[in-house]
Each structure stands twice: as structure tokens, then as C-alpha cells.
Design goal:
411 residues, alpha/beta, Alpha-Beta Plaits, Rossmann fold, 5-stranded antiparallel sheet, signal, serine-type endopeptidase activity, Peptidase_S8/S53_dom, S8 family serine peptidase, protease
Amino acid sequence: MRRPSAVFVLLLAIASIGVAPAQAQVLGPVQGLPNVQLPGARLPGLDPVAPLHSVDDLLRGPLALTRKVQIETLRRREPRRVDIDPHGAPVLRGEFLATGLSTAQRDAVQAAGFVVDRETSADATLGLDFVVLHDTRNRRTSRALRALQRAAPGAAFTYQHLYLPAGEGDAARVATAAAPSSVAPSQRVGLIDGGVDPGDPALAHARIERHGCTTANPSRHGTAVAARLVAGDADTLYAADLWCGDAVGGATSKLVEALAWMAREHVAVINISLVGPDNPVLARAVQAMIAHGHVLVSAVGNDGPAAPPLYPAAYPDVIGVSGVDAHDRVLPEAGSGEQVDFCASGVVGSGRNALRGTSFAAPIVARKAARLLEAPRTGAAAQVQQQLIGEARPLGARGRDPRYGYGLLSP
């Protein structure tokens, strides 16, 4: 058989980038061919030159659905602020969380070149005891963590992980706004995400209570999720912004502080369309929220069915939501596993202007949960999940399917 020419093989490899749906393609050297650099050619959605002005800049194009590409983009464009932990998860460079520090241990870490950057308001509300530490010596993140552990060997330290949106947020696209409902009563519901634009048609009748920023900084992703969460009704939306107009955000401490704010405001159901790694401080905060009677609904992420579970969706008693397309087929990029409790539409709009991702499925489920729970109560997470199981339309395998969960929930 005649061997294909080198040019043909190279062109075929390049063409495959645009074929696979919503899955990042990394084009490396083709076996047996020189590593040819095509003039002016770039991977779509990953421009190494353009600056990041907001979180929406991180969510442009189909490759933005892949968290690995988001992380690499952050590292390339914000190298002084963003690093990765040993497992490849994004962290704030030089920032750490410490729990249960004694006075002597605080003195020891300060002598090692760290300062208490800020105390958190989550302590009293959620029963946590943690502080944010900042490295003043600009050491590599792994080296700084070892210095902390040597300075206070009995204390517990962890990274300041960053949690990223689980869906597209291209500002050039227009999502379909929901029409006001004349049936559903107004309700209170929480959102932890980017900023929300009150001028969006789907939010025209909503009352928005903000947290986290001194000024309003709308994001496309946060607004699109909020639009599905409120769906045109006169609801009260408690919206916590973890970015405040910056490109780097979603820090663990900010997420925990947002949960504490929701607890103080007695918001029963909270939507979190963000994903990231397991973090011990976040795990304790989620556990405290569940124990206090709140219901947390979270997107399972878009790293694909073979990827490890992402958090907070994978924490016990959190309702994890996957996404399906217009034909009720699971999105190929959606996460799969025991963390999937339900699925809902993960596509906003239609055609080339459509946004997609599990981010947009979670608020459909959160909205239904909010109708079932007006105020936090003990055991609410399990009770609400059982009620939702009764409303879900089974898809996939009988019982709990790793891709569809207990079934599809419609708006």
C-alpha cells in the first residue's frame, strides 16, 4: 500500500481539530514528520498574546469548555498570580489556607516570611477556623508550602485553589432569555458565580442582592446562569461574585465566604456552576452548609466522562448536575460517575450562537429545588433529592445512571 505524503498526514491532523465536538485537541509532532510550525496558525480559543480582562475572556470558543485549556491559559497569561498544585489544579501563587493555627504557630509562620493576609467571616457562621496566608518572599508555590509545614509542623495547610466556570461565557453570543412565568410564585435562591447583569431581560423582574464586590461587574457566564435560575420571575436572587471584574478569581476562601453569606441570609438553595479539586477547607464548609439545612446544586463539569470527579459537585449530599442537548443526549464533554444525580438541558440558545456546558444545566435543577424548600431545615438535602427523583424522567440505565443520574429534570 502506498504511504500517504507527509503534507497529507499533517493536513489531516490539523483538520481533526475542528471535528471533535467540545473536546480540546492538542496537536503535537506527527510520528515520522518534522515538527512543522505553520505561519500564523493558532489553536482556536487559545491566543497566547491577547490579555485576559475578565473571566469571560477565559471562556471564549469551544476549547474553553475544557478546564485543562482554561488552566493553561491562566498560567500563560497570569504567571505571577496563577500556579498549579502537584495534581495540575490551579492555585493562587503564594497564597495558602491554614486551619487551627495557635498563637505560637502564627508567630512561627510569620517568622518564616508569611503574613495573615486576611481573616475570614466564615469562621463564626460555619464553625470554621481558617486564615489566608500570603508568602512575602515570592517563593515557588511548592517551596512555600514546604516552608509553612516546617515552620508549624502541627498545623494544617492547603492551597488556595481556584474554581472555574463549567460552561462557555462568550460575550459576543446572545443567550435566549426566558419569558416571565405567570404560574410560579416568587422565591429566594442563591448563586455563586461571576457577576450578574441586572439589565438582562430574564432578570428584569428579579430583586438582586449582591455580595463580594464594591461595584457591579457583570460577567457573561454569571448572567447566563442567573437567567436560567430566575427564568423571568420576580424572584430574589442572592448573587455572590467571586471575580469582581478580574480575570483571576474563584478562590477557595472567596467561595467559602460566599457560602457563609448565604447561610447568614438563610438562603435555602444555592447554585454553584463552578468546578475544581477537592479542598479540605471547602469540604468542611460544604459539610457545615448541609448540616445547617441548605441544599447545594453544582455542575459536574466538562472534563469528559473519563475524568476524575470535580468539586463541589462530588461532595456527599451535594446535588450534581450533568447536561444534555436538545435531543436529551448527554453532552460528550460532561462529567460522569457517582457525582451525577440529575441531568438537565446544558444548551442555551441555538445554532452557532448557542452556549453549552453543565453550568447551564445546574440552575434548572436548583430552581426546581428552590420551589421545594423555602427555608433551610435539617435533612433538607436528602429530602429535596428524593422529591426531585420523583419528578425526574429516567434516561440511560435503570436506577442511577453514571451519565444521566436519576434522570432528566425539565424547567
